[in-house]
Specification:
GO molecular function: ATP binding; metal ion binding
Number of domains: 1
Structural class: alpha/beta
Protein name: tRNA threonylcarbamoyladenosine biosynthesis protein TsaE
Main location: cytoplasm
Subcellular location: Cytoplasm
CATH topology: Rossmann fold
GO cellular component, one term: cytoplasm
Number of helices: 4
Length: 150
């Protein structure tokens, strides 16, 4: 990512705090837009995605796309894609989902080349005192505007 603007670490002591961060981010994210979600297994990537999608009006159950690779959701005429790139993505036809989505949440983006620059990159990790920490960085001007309003 070039010229990324980083925001201070955000402490996420509970799952509810991770959902709340997603809810705060959701209305600020650009459309079309892309968010990269980074972190080890169990770091809270899907929980953050769930918070974003719930705040955008998605009523369906938001599940991890680990086995399906792609979950799509619709709300108010918008399509949201939640992609897990832990496995090979080109063979699964996920490029079309990237192009067709109003907002694309990508888990494990480091596993694929050619995704393009995300508007927001979120790195989640365990906090030494418990809970998690999120570090947000903007990769585009629209992402920087989002983080400035957060």
């Amino acid at each position: 990512m070039t010229a990324a603007t980083a925001q201070d670490e955000i402490k996420l002591p509970t799952e509810a705090a991770t959902l709340e961060l997603g809810g705060r981010l959701a209305p600020l994210l650009p459309r079309p837009g892309m968010v990269h979600l980074r972190g080890e297994l169990g770091a809270g990537k899907t929980t953050l995605a769930r918070g974003i999608l719930r705040a955008l009006g998605v009523a369906a159950e938001v599940v991890s796309p680990t086995f399906t690779l792609l979950e799509t959701y619709n709300s108010d005429g918008l399509m949201f894609a939640h992609i897990d790139l832990f496995q090979e993505w080109h063979e699964a036809g996920l490029a079309e989902a990237l192009d067709a989505s109003d907002l694309c949440l990508v888990e494990w983006p480091e596993k694929a080349a050619g995704l393009g620059t995300p508007d927001i990159d979120v790195a989640l990790r365990d906090a030494p005192a418990g809970g998690r920490v999120a570090v947000l960085a903007a990769g585009t001007a629209a992402g920087a505007a989002c983080l400035a309003r957060l």
